[in-house]
Amino acid sequence: GINSLSKSQVSRMAVDLDEHVEQFRHRPLDAAGPFTFVSADALTMKVREGGRVINAVVLLAIGVNGDGHREVLGMRVATSETGAAWNSFFADLVARGLGGVRLVTSDAHAGLVEAIAAHLPGASWQRCRTHYAANLMSICPKGMW
User: Fold this and answer.
1) Pairing of strands 52-65, 124-127
2) DSSP strand E in 1-123: where?
3) Model-level pTM?
4) Domains and CATH numbers, the chain
5) Listed residue (65, 64, 63, 59) closest to 73, CA to CA
């Protein structure tokens, strides 16, 4: 039942949420790990910046530990999905304690695959079946799906 919120109320709520988000984004990962399986992807979203709406990319990693517990490991907003952005993202995850990764699934973005190899040595990489199927459907006539 909230009928209306003032701009100042929304701003105060956002400040409180920002603190929680920052704590979440910088928490140590080694206590809940090791995460043997990691899935990484990027989402394109529209965000408001400086009074304009622009496209931004949210880099996201989800891990599964040996007990089957699934957890969002990290997320970062970037201006575009580049190799440098993925490298920085994975460097941060490893610095926060991500280890023991045996398999990473993702799309075949070259910068992402290179960042995985650079920061998670010994981890195997597999292309995400959903992305692979979407790529196949984009080049096949719909009747052949």
Assistant:
1) unpaired
2) 35-49, 52-65, 70-78, 103-106
3) 0.80
4) 7-144 (3.30.420)
5) 63
Q: Is the peptide bond before 28 cis (omega within 30 degrees of 0)?
A: no
Sequence-separated contacts (24+) of 47-50 with Cβ below 8 Å: 47/77
Continuous segment of H or E residues that includes residue 115: helix 110-119
Euclidean distance between the first and the last CA atom of the chain, given in angstroms as a whole number:
45
CA angle 51, 54, 56 (to 5 degrees): 130
For the sheet containing 103-106, what is the strand order? 70-78, 52-65, 35-49, 103-106, 124-127
Which 3 state secondary structure label does DSSP give 69?
A: coil
Q: Is 95 helix (H, G, I), strand (E, B) or coil?
A: helix
Per-residue pLDDT of the chain (145 residues; tens, 9 = 90+): 677 888 888 888 888 888 888 998 999 998 887 899 999 999 999 988 888 999 999 999 999 998 899 999 999 999 889 999 999 999 999 999 999 999 999 988 899 999 999 999 999 999 877 777 777 788 888 887 7
